[in-house]
Amino acid sequence: MDYGFNEIQVDIRDLARKIAIEKVKPERARLDEEEEYPYDIMKVLAQSGMLGIYLAEEYGGLGGGCMELSIATEELSKVCGGVAVCFAANALGSYPIILHGTEEQKRKYLPRVASGEYLAAFALTEPNVGSDAAAIETTAREDGDYFILNGTKQWITNGGAASILTVFTSTNPGRGARGVSAFIVEKDFPGFIVGSKEKKLGIRCSDTRELRFDNCRVPKENLLGKKNRGFRIAMDTFDKSRPGIGAQAVGIAQGALDEAIEFTRTRIQFGQPVASFQAIQHMMADCAMQIEAARLLVYHAARAVDADAPDASKISAMAKCLASDVAMKVTVDCVQMCGGNGYMREFPLEKYMRDAKITQIYEGTNQIQRTIIGLELIKESAQKKK
Length: 386
Fold this sequence. Notes:
It contains twelve helices and ten strands. It is an alpha+beta fold and 386 residues long. The chain has three domains: 7-117, Butyryl-Coa Dehydrogenase, subunit A, domain 1, CATH 1.10.540; 121-228, Butyryl-CoA Dehydrogenase, subunit A, domain 2; 231-380, Butyryl-CoA Dehydrogenase, subunit A, domain 3 (Up-down Bundle), CATH 1.20.140.10. The strands form three sheets. A four-stranded mixed β-sheet has the order 1-4-5-8. A hairpin with a 2-residue loop joins strand 2 (139-143) and strand 3. Helix 4 runs antiparallel to helix 5.
């Protein structure tokens, strides 16, 4: 199908697909089994220019945006959702700087992200703070030319691999969302401690960590935006990044369906290929329709984000929510199509199913996405009556 890609976007798709097949596929089972971060693959992505496709040219990037990032993420996810999130988490950690950083901050950090010298991470979630992002307990207090950070972050993607992290703290406890501030923290700042690596159901090669701040000294020039305006930075970032999670989900679903179709074409039961049975064909058809619908919504959301469309927040939430629900249903159905083989660890489908689940949870659970969508619909209705 023609998705309206321009020449550069087609090149990005083809290059991401080539890297996924040639570099990621031979390693995906081992990386998953050993829970090893794909440093060598990240180097390949950096050398190919893929880590900067969403960054402006003046910072060493390609000048693309959410659409380009979504295209690449989908292609990598068709082979391995874990590697794809290592790639996409760079953008999540960088978007706050892109959106709200000073020119000095952008020039200091973004070229190093584009080149692969720096990996980035986004540190918002805490042991007691998940969906309620305004209830942050990590604190930052002013001390001369520094802010002193204390607290703990949990389940931070790229947490142990990142050289820079966007960290959200409370600078005015008791004010909720109006007391949150964001900082750029470098891994060697005194008082910054990387905790143990989490053991996860899926995306196992992704480096997910607990991070601790023990009187961590962060220079004042590393404050992102204005003090106590960090909640808006987080929400703006999610609007930009959620289509990428949708793209990851679409890629996982498509990869699973491709594997299931190939298996059922060659698996013989009752004297004929499993794919010849109408029950299996109907499952394939349902999966394909759901994937295509999700893909089109993801691309629509990515274009809305890049155009700064007024409904981009709503559409981004829709894309993330629908695509991740589709990924979970499709991967379960694909395991079912392949029977006992689909359940075996030496066959890739069980990994697709495990990887799919997290897309319904991170960057805002799908229940939160539905709340966002509902509130936006109510707001739109009220505005129409004015």
